[in-house]
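Exercise 7. Given the components listed, write out the predicted structure of the assembled complex. Treat all entries as one system.
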Amino acid sequence: MGKKLAGHLTSLILALLLGFSLIYYFDIGKKAPVARPDSIIKPYIEMDIDLNDPLRQALFKDMITLYHPEQSSDPDSLLRAVLTYRRDMYEAELQSAHTRQVLNEAKLRQLGIMFLKYVIVYILVLWLTYYGVETLGLIRFIRRKQNKVSYIFELINFLKEASYKKLNTYWRIPTLLVKSVLRGLLYLIFFSPAYVIAYSIKTEFNTNTLIFLILLGLISNGLLITYTNKFYAFLIAESRKGYVLTAMVKNLSNDYRFTQPHGVSLRALFSMRKWFKNHVLNHIYLNAHYQYLGTFKEQASFLISGLIIIEMALNIHGHLSYELLQQLLYKNYDIVIVIVMSIFIIVKVTEIFTDWVIDSKRRVYENRNN
Amino acid sequence: MKNKKQSSFFETLYHHKDRLWSMVWFLGMLLLFIWDMLYLNRPALLKVIDGAMNTFLIAFLVIVFALFIAWLAVNLLFIIRRKGFFVLETVLTFLIDIIRSIPQIIGILLGFVFIAGLLYRNIIQSPMAILLTAVLIAFFVFQELMDLMLDRVNHFRRLDFYQAMTVCGISGSRILNYHILWKNSRRHIFNKVVAIFGVAVFLQCSVDFIISVGLSTDISSMDLPVTLGGLLAHIDSKQDILAIGHAITNPGYFPNLFFKHLQGISVAFSIVFSLLCIYKISNGLSERFRL
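Answer.
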């Protein structure tokens, strides 16, 4: 753990150092976008004279004729060029004034509040996906152990044997069809990028609430279904191992029905701390859970990307990712760097936390004290 | 007899889910194309086809570049480890870890802004932008592939297989590239590549949608090659998607979605349906190859 922690901290420090250097660089170069002046008019740009005044214009022209007779352009066109350049500069300054923001204490405070909001949403969605992945993965696993097949396959099997069935069992055909369609729709929703779902219901529902953001983070972008499938794969792999047979020989229950006394308890299945007492599923679950922790970093990183997509695509004002997009548009790169650094910190803290959890679990498994 | 043959076909398809879902994907997209040919106006249809082609072309290029970068990284790490350059190995691993810690979407978004800037200044043209986009996305997704390759290499290095080959005088690079990666891991790699194809489609569409929605002044989406994500962000497609909400509360309006709002619906369907099918194909492959 110590080696990993050192690696994480070093990369964090290096990234922060790089970030601060970039902030310094962008802060210095932060000016209104102006065109470079022509070399002929360059000496006259910085002159502190109000050239809009006709008297000073006449003085300027006399000065050019008297003191710079070598000047190739005539004084009138030179004056026009200087005036045009000064006007362009002024307009550019005006145009960028409302978009240019300074990285001061007030801005940092504003970003801090957005960061906190982002962290809260992130932790909540991470917790919900963690729970969702384990519960849905277990449900799928139990359904498999109960020898249940997909609705479509069930329908095909039913139709194949339809001629031997009684007439009053035919109600199953529409039921299975509806179930398959609903399941397909649910899959499509789970795989929809967040912006597709959000824009689909934007006209009828308020999509700018925090609850909607959390819900969208949970169900969209394929996050839940992808990691449920990973957890399910771990459960399947564990169930094929030898210790499962040993456990069954030692009289642990192998009944996966919900309604039986020695079956799987629904309460245990839906509780946060899943514990299937005297059931072989408990051991399969615990070992699969340990392996799932290894993918948790990846899941967290995917979730962070998902939340950024949601906030940016939905243009939710006052959120960190939307602010990032705005500042990118306004070319306030110092603020962009601060936001990117803050998100990098979240990723690193998650990585450190996950490594710590995995390490402590490993110690328990390997009976190590340190 | 005929019935038995048909059922075995369905059963084979059911158990070979990768083939089943490849077929479903192809048929679904074909059906969508025929429907669009019938009911979508020609300019919009051409835009949708262009967007889909660009999206899948970029995603394909992403997997090519990701494969190359991952292969390069694995070979480099392998050589460095064999030569015992501990410091170099630490530095390389450290750099890869830093890339891993940057959320993909942020890295790609910043890269897109850079590419759009190059296009805006006429430094590069559209075909080059497609290549650069693919390299950019590959740079942020190759780690998964690299991790898989490294896992396989580490697994085989622990076996007698590796020592025996070394004793036989087979060069390290041949053992790594031919015997481990090609002969013993290509199924795993292929499965991962399919998953990365899906990730590439998702990331590309998302970033393009975000850029088209949020960065519409200097970094105009018109400068970047049209993809499904960018098309979805166009005002006409967006209105089509917004119409779904109207259809939810007014079910009578639902049939209009398939005639009046076809552009947005086609684009959204192409993205969602492709993502679902790619995921199912990848799962089917893992099941079939028992990975």
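Discussion: Chain B has a mean pLDDT of 86. Chain B touches chain A through 48 residues (CB under 8 Å).
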